[in-house]
Amino acid sequence: MRVHEFRSYINSFMVFAFFLAFNLLTNDLGLLKNVSKAAAVAGTILIAITLLLGPLSRFFPGHFRHDLIYRKPLGIAGFFFAAVHVVVAFFNSYNADIYYIFSESNPNFLPAVYGTVAFLILIALALTSTASAIKNMGFRKWKMLQRTGYIALALIMLHFATLGGGYFLKTNTGKTLLALGIIAIAAKILVLLLDIPKKHSKEEIKHLTKE
Asked: What span, in angstroms and rounded, lies between the C-alpha atoms of 12 and 103?
């Protein structure tokens, strides 16, 4: 494991640990539910930052192009915490009843759909994050697939916005996550509209395809 990867994973865990400690000190939901909530928040933050680094490296290449090496480990960590949230919610909140989750009797049916589709996209991105996968797909096709991460982030925002009647967005954490997600998506749209070129693609390709 490279130094920047180790540093990214440690920092990612610290983000999760912070929100877990905060939840445990401010509510009495129980350990598993608090783990699920903290993992959801940490995962969303890490995914949003991962996606935001791309546009930032085009707007401010002198400051952020060297930070692109952190995108892969941060994205993997974000996926891991998203998976923790999904697994805990599936077994603890829904008792592994998949039929109920996707039935009209579930008051959170739409949030479940948004979250499921987002998680499936994240699975595809995680499975194709290896150097061999990038080489087999070709960098251009792989990059197009990676852009679906913004769709996943938008679906995550919808998941939060509709969950429990939108109660989460009434909290400061929810508002912060929504703002971060909107900034990441808006920045990508602005990059595409302005057609800002990436002057460091060769460096990124070399780094990502290095075994």
From this structure: 35
32: region left, alpha or beta (phi > 0 left; psi from -120 to 50 alpha): alpha
Nearest to 41 by CA among 27, 22, 55, 26: 22
Structure token pair of residue 199: 């002057």
CB of 41 closer than 8 Å to CB of 89: no
* pLDDT tens digit sequence for 31-74: 999 999 999 999 999 999 999 998 998 888 877 877 888 899 99
What type of residue is 205? I
Count each helix (H run) and each strand (E run) in the chain, helices first.
11, 0
pLDDT of residue 110: 93
pLDDT bin (cut points 50, 70, 90) of residue 210 is low
- Asked if 181 contacts 114 with a C-beta cutoff of 8 angstroms, the reply is no
- CA 62 to mean position of chain CA atoms: 25
d(CA 109, CA 104): 7
What are the pLDDT digits (tens) for 17-29? 999 999 999 888 8
**Token digits for 107?**
């008051």
